[in-house]
Write a structure and sequence with these properties.
Protein name: DUF4262 domain-containing protein
Number of domains: 2
Strand order of the largest sheet: 1-2-3-6-5-4
InterPro entries: DUF4262
Radius of gyration: 20 Å
Organism: Chitinophaga sancti
Order of helices and strands: HEEHEHEEHHEEHEEEHE
Number of strands: 11
Strand content: 15-25%
Largest sheet: 6 strands, mixed
């Protein structure tokens, strides 16, 4: 992280209690906002909120920062009515497996990932949370739950159809991945020019079981492509 950027973050932490990182949504990925500095200044976990308009999420996080400055501490074992009118919010502890995808700025600022994070989770209009029966299905992937599903990080259901080849199913490494921009279909191949006669349709979860490293591509937007020379190499985009 450049010195000027680090200094700007430090100034915001000193003045406002935290610095906010805002990431806009696209046609596949949800928007999110997270803090930097709550842990440094107050010893409180950083906070992240998905799926709300950036203005709303920013206001909620700033309100939370003010409450933390006044001595409030948020925990995963209760609901809080302080943020959304007539709807409680809950907090979940984020698993570190997700840090590299959502907290890169915070990790660069701190120089490590040894800091806690709580995810602020909002309910639907019936005050149901994503893990409860009856939660609105269309909202499910607006806020991925960062305390679970580390074996399957994708924004789709585990049984959604994906495409591969018999060579991959027989043990060939996955070296090329495509997220189709027309129908959103995922493709996982050993070659960048697979033969259609070898195509196979499988559940997306079965691909993550064959090669858990493809979870690192769960954020690949529609039309995105990734490749690597060997399974030991980092994915390129």
């Amino acid at each position: 992280m450049e010195t000027k950027e680090r200094e700007r973050i430090k100034q915001n932490i000193e003045k406002h209690g935290c610095h906010l990182i805002m990431v806009m949504e696209d046609d596949y990925l949800p928007a999110f906002v997270h803090t930097i500095g709550l842990f440094e200044k107050y010893g409180h976990p950083e906070l992240i909120c998905f799926g709300l308009k950036k203005e709303v999420a920013s206001e909620i996080l700033n309100d939370a920062a003010e409450m933390i400055a006044e001595g409030q501490s948020f925990t995963p074992d209760q609901s809080y009515d302080d943020f959304l009118k007539e709807h409680p919010m809950r907090f979940l502890p984020a698993d570190k497996s997700y840090y590299e995808f959502y907290f890169g700025y915070a990790s660069r600022y701190y120089g490590h990932d040894d800091y806690p994070v709580l995810q602020m989770v909002w309910p639907d209009k019936a005050s149901l949370f994503p893990w409860q029966a009856g939660f609105v299905p269309d909202l499910k992937f607006k806020q991925p739950l960062l305390d679970r599903n580390t074996d399957f990080m994708f924004y789709e259901e585990r049984n959604v159809m994906a495409y591969t080849t018999k060579q991959v199913l027989e043990g060939a490494p996955i070296l090329y991945v495509n997220h189709d921009d027309e129908d959103g279909a995922w493709q996982f191949h050993h070659s960048n020019n697979p033969d259609l006669k070898d195509a196979k349709a499988v559940a997306l979860e079965s691909i993550t079981k064959l090669d858990p490293s493809v979870n690192k591509l769960h954020f690949l937007p529609y039309g995105g492509k990734a490749w690597r020379k060997t399974p030991q190499d980092r994915w390129e985009f």
